[in-house]
Amino acid sequence: MIEIKNISKTFKNNKVLDGIDLTINQGDVVAIIGPSGTGKSTFLRCVDRLEKPETGTITIDGETQDLAHIHGKDLTELRKKTGMVFQNFNLFSKKTALQNVMEGLIVVKKMKKEEAERIAREQLKNVGLLDHANHYPRHMSGGQQQRVAIARALAMEPKLLLLDEPTSALDPELVGEVLDTIKKAANEGYTMLLVSHEMSFVRNVATRVIFLDGGKILEDGTPREVFGNPKNERVKEFFTKINRMEEPDYSI
Amino acid sequence: MIEIKNISKTFKNNKVLDGIDLTINQGDVVAIIGPSGTGKSTFLRCVDRLEKPETGTITIDGETQDLAHIHGKDLTELRKKTGMVFQNFNLFSKKTALQNVMEGLIVVKKMKKEEAERIAREQLKNVGLLDHANHYPRHMSGGQQQRVAIARALAMEPKLLLLDEPTSALDPELVGEVLDTIKKAANEGYTMLLVSHEMSFVRNVATRVIFLDGGKILEDGTPREVFGNPKNERVKEFFTKINRMEEPDYSI
Amino acid sequence: MGKLFDGKLVFTQIPLLLKYLPVTMELAVTAMIASLILGLLLALVKIKKVPVLKQLVSIYISVIRGTPILVQLYVTYFGIPMLLKYINFKCGTNYNVNGVAPIVYAFVALALNESAFNAEIIRASLESVDKGQVEAASALGMNYFQALIRIILPEAIVVALPSLGNAFIGLIKGTSLAFVCSVVEMTAEGKILAGRNYRYFEVYISLAIIYWVITFVLERVISYLEKKLRVPEDAPALLDIRDTEVE
Amino acid sequence: MGKLFDGKLVFTQIPLLLKYLPVTMELAVTAMIASLILGLLLALVKIKKVPVLKQLVSIYISVIRGTPILVQLYVTYFGIPMLLKYINFKCGTNYNVNGVAPIVYAFVALALNESAFNAEIIRASLESVDKGQVEAASALGMNYFQALIRIILPEAIVVALPSLGNAFIGLIKGTSLAFVCSVVEMTAEGKILAGRNYRYFEVYISLAIIYWVITFVLERVISYLEKKLRVPEDAPALLDIRDTEVE
Amino acid sequence: TGCGSSSGSASKDSSSDSGKTVIKAATGANAKPYVYVGDDGKPAGYDVDVLNAVFDKLPDYELEYEVTDFGSVLSGLNSGNYQIGVNNFSYNEDRGASYLYSYPYDKISYVFVTKKGGKEIKSFEDAAGLSFEGGTGISVSNAVEAWNEKNPDKAINITYSDADTSVFLQHVADGSQDFTIIDLAMYNSYMEEFNYDVQKNDIPEDEAKMIAENSYAYYIFPQDQKDLREQVDKALKELKEDGTLTEISKKWYGQDAAPEDDKFEETIN
Ligand SMILES: Nc1ncnc2c1ncn2[C@@H]1O[C@H](COP(=O)(O)OP(=O)(O)OP(=O)(O)O)[C@@H](O)[C@H]1O
Ligand SMILES: Nc1ncnc2c1ncn2[C@@H]1O[C@H](COP(=O)(O)OP(=O)(O)OP(=O)(O)O)[C@@H](O)[C@H]1O
Ligand SMILES: [Mg+2]
Ligand SMILES: [Mg+2]
Question: What are the ABC transmembrane type-1 domain coordinates in residue numbering (chains C, D) (predicted)?
Fold first, then answer.
């Protein structure tokens, strides 16, 4: 069980997160949805301490860390337990797919090169890119890059995998392959916290959906509950907006 | 009527366009769809001569120009007759919304400043951004920027408006406002040639859909014909791929 | 007397040296302006890949950057008259360059030298401009020259400004080499003063103080200009559309 | 004799001057290396915004960039011994720096000077590295030092290389100023040769040729390195997975 | 003086393996035939020969030359990097305030140089209104300044330059400058090398005073080397008495350039 408590984050005068609490069960896939600019990315980044919140704690494996003050070894340990997949993949551009996956194993987990390479190959195979092991990021499509990024994160065996709009930078045709990869990881039992605009994917893969707006969690429930019967007005309005395309005015 | 004939374009050894012919009727809204990297953007760019094709002519208002050799005054004249809206908006970052729209009128159409400003304000009003006249691009959301870009193109009163994935760089919530703006222009009778991945929008706004792949036009017809009953195998496969999300496997 | 280091002299000399600040600045400013214009032309030749000219420009830049500026001053100042003399001697002509003031040679040599360096700065800054904006300008029907003036340069200037600022600071100090062409600016005057009392160390310290103040002021001016040229951080208020009705 | 310009001499002198090329290169290379290390440290202080130190570094860079390098050489070479002498005189101590070879002073002054300029180049190149990659490294659990070595530097080097190359070319020519510290390198030897036969113009031309050749070669080397350090343009062949089975 | 430790002799400064005190003589080596670097890479010239002869008489010292930038010769003395400056230095009051001067070892005669066939200049009076080009740190330029100060109505137009003497001569030859002043020995050397279209006229004895208050050349020392200067002076006096100075100057100039006997009576500052 992973417990996140009281995360608050303010940019200048803009209170983006206002004391968010979230408890995630082992194996849960929690999707965060909400309007643009509402702090979804910021929340993920605070959990991984890429952003420093004013207050907030995280408990993984019974160990509690203060996110506002964590540093040094504790921070490294926290980050070893979490993995992050970014919207723009953020692969190391000067390293091949294989080296990208090996990097964390060698530098952070201090593995021997052979051992790291074995694991990296396995992970690349899992995401279906073993034949691209020697390709540099620039030689791969966006979808392939994102799959390597997922392999890189999974190789570290994180207790919690964070994914921030992992498909929104992709061409529509490439979205599928990445979603398949994420679904596979979910089925393998990884605990995940993901932000996504792909509502049909969220509906399909998430065990729990959270709607974030105004620094607060406005809805929290199964996809069926949240999508099917939102209680909050703002949530309803949001669904109306993104569903416009399917409305009568936009169909022939 | 606008006649485009025999456009061929090769990058190194990669024949992207292989003698494309296309005749567009006044007031038509022609949507080009097709897989990523198939040459849709290249086609638009050849028509506007941002890319130089090996062969190709274009006839607007009865005047025929050789796209492979056009230059100087002829080129300027051609470009005055066409307008372009880019995926990344490409607003002039050092100019306000108003100045962006005025720029072409003053520099290319040699209008007086007052006259240009009058037209620019009108166009900004049409896209609903008159109150943002003094905003710089960096102060506007993507959707707002794209609407200014459309205003900028329309201010030049083009015979043919080219739009290259005008919404694909936008957050899902912002897509709607831009599509509305384009739809409005279509209703006003502008002739348009647009590339889009938003199938529901294409279905709704286009009078004609063209499927491009392998340098050739594989399908050409009304949206109903192309979406409803594609003849070509590759086109069918394409629709299957982008419709995966709606398939049983991806719904609960 | 007999001090090893005459601290007072460091300061009493400063006003004497400052009398020659105008010469320094005049030479630096005019050479900078000329080098910017020439540098822009060189950069355009490289960007537009003008056949033949492109190769010539590459060689020019390589030679200028590869040889000491002192030599370039020597070549302009002594080489040209020497060459003319040789031509006169061989061909019986009678060209004469005695009427040309030394500062003109110094100006020419410094401007040529600086232009080679500025050409690269300008080229890099022009190329850094978002291609999309240039395409947007073309799509509107602007020709390259119009796009250059209206769209590209206003963007490029912001990028180039810090490097050009540094180049200018370097040039101000570099003008001291013009003394080989008998142009007396600040450093030269410093050497003349030291030649009288042999207090070279003190005069160099005085010069350092002056140059440092100039540099300091210039750095402020440049960073002020940078801020000015940038698009303001904060959005303006929305216009009240009722007031600005479109007639 | 009696020629105004002795063309043959330009070439016959070159071998004599080349004997001092090793001094030039030794000084330039060691000063460059030291300045890169120091420059990296200065850049890190600025990037990491280390309190107090950050201000000190800014002042240091401003002073070094704002004053002529000649003065910096003077201050290190004459100022330090002078200060010691003064201290000895006042306090009866007996510090002594006569054992230090002049080339050491020249090295120190050139390295310090170059470090200020390189610090800015290095800072800009470090900051140009895609923040996303740095975040990805942090997210994996690397600390800043690990990310710097493994991820940031390999990216930054490609960006910094052309500017650092130019700085190095400038430094090679700049070593000639070390003559004020009695270091005889190529240009100094040129002046000494000219002191013998008064043929300053010829010797400067010889020097220009040598410097230009060095610059030319270096430019090639740098652009070769740039190409090498870049990720290859073309994708490699796909691996045959049957051969590389995961055990 | 002060703590006392550093006054007087150079003996503490540094010493060689042989136990001798090392004296560093600095020179710009840019003034043939006075001092330049010979084909063997060692300093040569009249000034060098004389100084070598001086130190032959001073067994406690070991003399080393260091070739450096002209400005550095002067700054390096004050800073303690060098103990003797060798550059055919002439004397004026300002400089005398900064450095100790030895007994003179060379009598310099200067010449006006004008374009061959042009107007001859035989005195500063003749040069009134004409243009003169010269370098910094050399006394002829200071002399012209002094003339202008005393005779503002007959001023000479001075152009200072960082270029070398050959350039000044060339400018006189091609008419871009009216005249320059250099010392006879260098004039002869330059003419031998370049054979410019120029002519010379001796400067009258009384006017030569303006050039350097006196027309002699000296070695210079930093203020704290009184002891060293004393010993060098003693040796120079001996060299004058035994005719060595005359001998060396004949070798370099073809004439006797040793200063008069009474110049070896008391130091100039
Ligand atoms: N480094 C920063 N400095 C200042 N403000 C920031 C910073 N990062 C984010 N913000 C602001 O915080 C708010 C939340 O941003 P965040 O990126 O977390 O939103 P989001 O929900 O992920 O939006 P999107 O769906 O567009 O990705 C926004 O208003 C944004 O402008
Ligand atoms: N400047 C260029 N140089 C070389 N190849 C290019 C260039 N521009 C495009 N291409 C290639 O031409 C092909 C067509 O590109 P284009 O951008 O027109 O495709 P597209 O259909 O617009 O794709 P997308 O839907 O991803 O925008 C691609 O294979 C691309 O790699
Ligand atoms: Mg986000
Ligand atoms: Mg495209």
Answer: 21-222
Residues of B engaging A, defined by a Cβ cutoff of 8 Å: 35-36, 171-176, 197-198, 200-201, 203-204, 223-224, 238, 241-242, 244-246, 249-252
Any idea where the domains of chain A sit in the sequence?
2-246
> Can you give the pLDDT at residue E140?
84
Is the residue at C2 inside a domain?
no
Neighbours of C132 (CB within 10 A): 16
CATH superfamily of B2-246: P-loop containing nucleotide triphosphate hydrolases (3.40.50.300)
Chains near C (3 or more Cβ pairs under 8 Å): B, D, E
Give the mean pLDDT of B219-241.
Answer: 87
Query: How does the average pLDDT of chain A come out, rounded?
Result: 90
Computed on alpha carbons and rounded to an integer, the radius of gyration of chain A in Å comes to 19
Closest residue (by CA) to atom 10 of ligand 2? B11
Residue C187 included in any domain: yes
- Mention every residue, 6+ apart, whose C-beta is less than 8 A from residue C102: C77, C178, C181, C182, C183, E159
Predicted confidence at residue A10, as pLDDT, reads: 93
Tokens of A177: 């392959």
Model confidence, pTM: 0.86
With CA atoms as reference, the chain C residue closest to D217 would be C66
Within a domain: D1 = no
Q: How confident is the model at residue C243 (pLDDT cuts 50, 70, 90)?
A: low
**Cβ–Cβ contact D192 with E under 8 A:** yes
User: If you write DSSP's letter for every residue of E113-160 in order, what string do you get?
Assistant: EEETTS----SHHHHTT-EEEE-SSSHHHHHHHHHHHH-GGG--EEEE
- CATH code of the domain covering residue D238: 1.10.3720.10
Residue E159: which of C77, C114, D71 has the closest Cα? Answer: C77
Nearest-ligand number for the alpha carbon of A33: 1
In a 10 Å sphere around its CB, with 0-12 CB exposed, 13-18 middle and 19+ buried, how is residue B184 labelled? Answer: middle
Q: Cα-Cα-Cα-Cα dihedral of B230, B236, B241, B243, to 10°?
A: 40
* Residue to test with chain C: of E78, E91, E224, most C Cβ within 10 A: E78
Using an 8 Å Cβ cutoff, are C71 and D204 in contact? yes
Over 90: is that where the pLDDT of D152 sits? yes
Burial of C232 (0-12, 13-18, 19+ CB in 10 A): exposed
Q: Count other C-beta atoms under 10 Å from residue D234's C-beta.
A: 6
* Tally of structural domains, chain D: 1
Which residue segment(s) compose the domain that C161 sits in? 8-243
* Spacing of C-alpha B217 from chain mean position: 17
pLDDT per residue as tens digits for the range A104-142: 999 999 999 999 999 999 999 999 999 999 999 999 988
State ipTM. Answer: 0.84
The kind and range of the H/E element at E51 are helix E46-56
Q: What is the pLDDT of residue D40?
A: 96
Chain A: give the shortest CA distance to residue B203, in Å: 7
Strand, coil or helix: C154 = helix
Q: How far apart are CA C96 and CA A9, in angstroms?
A: 77
CA distance B173 to chain A (A): 6
Q: Identify the residues whose C-beta falls under 6 Å from ligand 1.
A: A 11, 14, 16, 36-42; B 171
Cβ contact (<8 Å) for C68 and D4?
no
Q: Which tens digits make up the pLDDT trace of D186-210?
A: 999 998 888 888 888 889 999 999 9
DSSP label of D150: I
Place of tokens 């007072």: C8
Give dist(CA B138, CA A12) in Å, integer. 19
Q: How far is CA A49 from CA A92, A177, B139, D149, in A?
A: 20, 29, 29, 21
Cis status of the peptide bond prior to E33, with omega within 30 of 0: yes
Of D77, D88, D192, the CB nearest to E29: D192
The alpha carbon of residue D14 is apart from the nearest alpha carbon of chain C, in Å, by: 15
- Residue D3 forms part of a structural domain: no
